[in-house]
Design brief:
The protein has 299 residues and is α/β, with parallel strands linked by helices. It has 13 helices and eleven strands. The N terminus and C terminus are likely disordered.
Length: 299
């Protein structure tokens, strides 16, 4: 900044900082807008305003991806510590109590960070009881958890990133997991040691017939062991579901699968916000820089 340059005479407001930090994490304008409950145009406006005052581009945008520029990385790294400290101070002043029900759509969704998240939340908010309802079959069926959210049966869920749906708010990322294909031990792909998206398309029934993560994982395990299907899943699948005749191989050329905190839009309260803060802070501490996939286009 040259003498007489007044570009930074006004400190960025918290909304601008929040947009830049969330976009730096998501690298996707649409998901940033959904998470902050803003329009995509408003996100772009706030980023552009901060770029004008910073004197350069903070993000490079193409039709397929968003990346941080060196200037954006410097700003992110400088803004994050004071922003997080403000949030820690606010959380420490806010008393959160009562009961919070948290559903997990699939045992592999938490990767396996749920005990750590519950411990961190309990340490910050000892007067708030978190209950995790048992996963009945209706919760494991496609859409079961989101139906429970809309019906008010649970406050929060950890779910594989759903498609944009009216009535749902997407919270912070819980995990990004490498993709694998679960197959019978004597399957040709097990002998090869890896699989590709093309291999998956050639399995009986194609990708849709292979069940994927939207079905009952325990049922999938038996179908895999019987040699009837191959199951596209995530690396932690066999941490929770085991069978002596089932193995996994890396699924190459397929982007990681993302799980998120999800709640019913309009039903956010202090308990939901407090748990979302814990998840977001844990993610910032431990996550490697996300690798954009084919769906990570700029908005």
């Amino acid at each position: 900044m040259t003498a007489g340059d007044t570009t930074w005479t006004r400190v960025p407001d918290l909304r601008e900082i929040e947009v830049v930090l969330v976009l730096a994490e998501e690298l996707h304008f649409g998901r940033t807008a959904s998470r902050l409950r803003l329009s995509s145009s408003r996100v772009s406006q706030l980023v552009s305003r901060l770029e004008r005052r910073a004197g350069g581009r903070l993000f490079e945008r193409t039709s397929r991806r968003v990346t941080l520029t060196p200037l954006g990385e410097r700003l992110r790294d400088g803004l994050r510590p004071p922003y997080e400290e403000i949030h820690r101070l606010v959380r420490s002043l806010r008393e959160v109590s009562g009961r919070l029900s948290l559903a997990v759509a699939d045992l592999a969704c938490d990767d396996p960070s749920l005990p750590e998240l519950l411990g961190a939340f309990g340490a910050l908010h000892p007067h708030c009881l978190v209950v995790t309802p048992g996963a009945g079959r209706e919760a494991r069926e496609p859409g079961g958890v989101t139906r429970a959210l809309r019906a008010g049966e649970v406050d929060l869920a950890i779910a594989w990133q759903p498609a944009a749906e009216d009535g749902l708010a997407l919270g912070p990322v819980v995990s990004r997991q490498a993709r694998v294909l679960a197959v019978r031990r004597d399957h040709p792909l097990a002998r090869r040691g890896h699989a590709t998206a093309r291999d998956l398309a050639e399995e009986p029934g194609g990708p849709a017939g292979a069940l994927g993560l939207r079905g009952d994982a325990a049922e999938a395990l038996w179908l895999i062991a019987a040699g009837r299907i191959a199951h596209p899943t995530v690396a932690s699948f066999t941490d929770h579901y085991r069978h002596p005749d089932v193995v996994t191989v890396p699924l190459r050329g397929v982007p990681p699968l993302v799980s998120r905190l999800v709640w019913a839009a309009g039903e956010e309260n202090d308990r939901v916000r407090a748990f979302a803060d814990v998840v977001a802070e844990a993610r910032r501490r431990t996550a490697a820089p996300p690798q954009p996939g084919p769906d990570d286009a700029g908005g």
